[in-house]
Amino acid sequence: MHSDLERPQASKSAKKARQVLALILTGLVLIALADLWSQYAAGGHHWKQTDWLINVENQWVRRGLLGSALIRLSDALSADLLTVTVLVQAAFILLAAAGVYATLSRAIWHVAHSSVALLPPVYQVMAASRFDGLLTKELIAIAGLGLICLSPGVGTLLLSLGFFAHEGLVFFLPAGLALLWRFGACKHWMVVMILSGLSAFAYAFVFRTAEDSALICAPLLQRGIGEHLCSGPISYLALNLIDFTKSTIVDHLPTFRTLVYLAAWSSSVVLLALLWRNQDNMKIGLACLVPVLPLFFLAEDYGRWFSMAFTSAVLIASTYRIGAPRPILAIAVAAGSMVVTFGPVGGVYFSGIANRIVKLWLPGLLG
Fold it and tell me: Each residue of 79-136: pLDDT tens digit?
């Protein structure tokens, strides 16, 4: 572990700040679990649960290994498949919260004040992104990243699981390697992570297209899953991935919408500015943020890409000695986060905690 991560003697202000952080995360966990319960009560969400239920029971296809594991677990327990899936998601919510707390709480030792609200990494992850990975498979990767500080092996294995669950999570690889390095993990865990990422990407490319999406859905219907869950990500797997990617790039590259979101994404420059004094730090920051950029041209899930970029950056930034920001900087970070969260151009999966609070409470307050 790097020397600047060693904890000094606890101060009262640091203890209070960590208590505030724990309180905030507890509230976010309750909100995430409430979201999950509402989806379960409605018979499942056609994206947030279906993404986990893509399987390889009848044909090999990318993203399907985790779904088959859930099916086998459900069969072994003689339990409802949707119930098992939701419980696994709930477990990962708790793991992700624990990991985020463990990593961010270390940052409190490195700042000159005890105000969690003014610490840019904490604000970004709470306001502009979601520690619970939007209840999609990013949740697995975020749990892995956060837990690296407690157990490099567990964090690496969880992140590797995420790579095979969804090839898009390989974009978290630079952040995972950076955290392993910052927390002094053995090099063999870095090798495992790299090999897992490359293998997962190769697997996804070889089995990139499903012959028939109905073959993926059939095992789910046989186990009582509602037919409405057979849409969403399952239907996309039947598309030719290469042709779909080409057409998406052609459609998105010249659009004003993409430029707007890339401009909003640049608010993360605030985090890079905090790392500016050390060139190694800057390289790590860029390694976390730049790999996500291509995703903006490949799909419209802009909120997910923002969340991936911000979460990677804030977890890395929290491992450095970041001084207390001036009030004007704190305001700028808050304003940048609000621009990202409430951008004027519609996007998919924009649901940071600030956005969700406004959606829940503002309409009621306005009557």
Answer: 999 999 999 999 999 998 899 888 877 766 554 333 333 344 444 444 444 566 667 8
Torsion of CA 224, 228, 229, 230, to 10 degrees: 100
CB 23 within 8 A of CB 122: no
Query: How far out from the chain centre does Cα 26 lie?
Result: 18
Q: Can you say how many angstroms the Cα of residue 157 is from the centroid of all Cα atoms in its chain? A: 16
Question: DSSP letters of 204-224?
Answer: HHHT-S-S-HHHHHHHHHHTT
Single pTM value for the model? 0.81
Distance in angstroms (rounded) separating the CA atoms of residues 367 and 365: 5
* Structure tokens given for 101: 């707390």
| Alpha-carbon gap, residue 8 to 14, rounded angstroms | 10
Closest alpha carbon to 116 in 288, 307, 314: 314
> Hunting for tokens 């991935």 — which residue is that?
241
pLDDT tens for 263-292 read: 555 545 555 555 555 565 666 666 666 777
